[in-house]
């Protein structure tokens, strides 16, 4: 007797396109990842270069997973505001070449597959609900702390996109409106300029200008990761910057708690790796500012999916039948 052949799995090519990195994977409907890659997001004034990077990643994932199943759809989480029904990136402050670009249609024409696009933080929120920290939670907010600050809102188990698809732009709530730092969105005092990886670098540079610290790396080597390592090593300036970031984040958390009364707030993204350096300050500030009942109820915890949150969420949305633009 011949052994029964294993059924081919239905796979989705999922990509998470951030201001710094492009991550991609082939994922099945149980959340298993079969191939994963990470590349630097092209620094280009041309959207075609971004498109080429996505096409290359998709073809690599498809080639590497042929023995597991068939990639039937593509789903891209983008660091920006998107129109999912038209497949258009409306604004992408950290990837300006994509603003106004019909990404789904262009990528679909190259891959000959239907393509879904979604905001990256929305995708991360879905990923954490599906496979991560917010499993079983009906109302949650996911805040992604990376190059910028994003947010995704889950209400009654469903992703809330808002009337125009721009809901969840938590990074652009004003927490220091008068005399605050100018944000890439055009406003000033946004949470993004106080609680992101780029914010950590800016705050250290500003502090070092007034209080030079020869132990800190030079400007060319000053990254959020370097600041994290120096804080771990006990550098007081780096520790203080993480504390300040936590306080600003706590101001934003208080508004979310008062407005949405969520069961859980998940803190994801690369900066969340420094959770124990800022979480205490963020939670304390939130409790001082938010109404006591929702503040005592809400659970604030780090994400569990790591860099895979956006990829998993993008795949889940595709499996759930979110609008995709055909070829």
Q: Can you characterise this structure?
A:
The protein is an alpha/beta fold and 327 residues long. It has two domains: 9-124 and 308-319, ATPase, nucleotide binding domain (Nucleotidyltransferase, domain 5), CATH 3.30.420; 133-304, Nucleotidyltransferase, domain 5 (2-Layer Sandwich), CATH 3.30.420. It is 38% helix and 22% strand. The protein has helices at residues 47-64, 103-111, 120-131, 192-195, 197-210, 224-232, 236-260, 275-289, 292-297, 309-319, and strands at 9-17, 21-28, 33-40, 69-78, 81-83, 88-91, 115-119, 140-145, 149-155, 158-159, 264-268, 299-302. The strands form three sheets. Strands 3-2-1-4-7 form a five-stranded mixed sheet, sandwiched between helices. Strands 10-9-8-11-12 form a five-stranded mixed sheet. Strands 5-6 form a two-stranded antiparallel sheet. 47% of the residues are buried. The model has no long low-confidence stretch (mean pLDDT 92).
Percent in helix:
25-40%
What is the CATH topology descriptor of the largest domain? Nucleotidyltransferase, domain 5
Return the string of H and E elements: EEEHEEEHEHEEEHHHHEHHEH
Average residue pLDDT: 92
Overall structural class, as computed from helix and strand content, comes to: alpha/beta
Give a count of the beta strands, DSSP E runs of length 2 or more. Answer: 12
* Shape descriptor: globular
The unreliable regions are none
- The CATH class of the largest domain is Alpha Beta
């Amino acid at each position: 007797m011949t052994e029964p052949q294993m059924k081919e799995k239905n796979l989705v090519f999922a990509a998470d396109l951030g201001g710094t990195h492009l991550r991609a994977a082939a994922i099945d409907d149980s959340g298993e990842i079969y191939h994963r890659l990470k590349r630097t997001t092209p620094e280009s004034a041309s959207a075609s270069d971004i498109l080429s990077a996505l096409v290359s990643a998709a073809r690599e994932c498809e080639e590497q997973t042929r023995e597991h199943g068939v990639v039937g759809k593509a789903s891209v989480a983008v660091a920006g505001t998107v129109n999912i029904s038209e497949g258009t990136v409306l604004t992408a402050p950290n990837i300006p070449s994509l603003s106004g670009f019909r990404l789904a249609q262009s990528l679909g024409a190259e891959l000959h597959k239907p393509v879904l696009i979604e905001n990256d933080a929305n995708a991360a929120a879905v990923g954490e609900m599906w496979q991560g920290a917010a499993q079983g939670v009906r109302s949650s907010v996911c805040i992604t702390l990376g190059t910028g600050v994003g947010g995704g809102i889950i209400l009654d188990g469903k992703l809330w996109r808002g009337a125009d698809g721009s809901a969840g732009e938590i990074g652009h709530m004003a927490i220091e409106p008068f005399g605050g730092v100018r944000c890439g969105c055009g406003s000033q005092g946004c949470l993004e300029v106080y609680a992101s990886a780029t914010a950590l670098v800016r705050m250290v540079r500003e502090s070092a200008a007034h209080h030079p610290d020869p132990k800190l790396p030079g400007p060319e080597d000053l990254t959020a990761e370097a600041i994290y390592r120096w804080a771990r090593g006990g550098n007081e300036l780096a520790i203080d910057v993480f504390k300040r970031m936590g306080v600003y984040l706590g101001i934003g958390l208080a508004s979310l708690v008062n407005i949405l009364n969520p069961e859980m707030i998940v803190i994801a993204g690369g900066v969340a790796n420094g959770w124990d350096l800022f979480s205490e300050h963020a939670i304390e500030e939130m409790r001082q500012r938010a109404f006591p009942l929702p503040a005592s109820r809400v659970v604030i915890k780090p994400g569990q999916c790591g860099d895979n949150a956006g990829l998993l969420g993008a795949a889940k949305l595709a499996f759930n039948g979110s609008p995709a633009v055909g070829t």
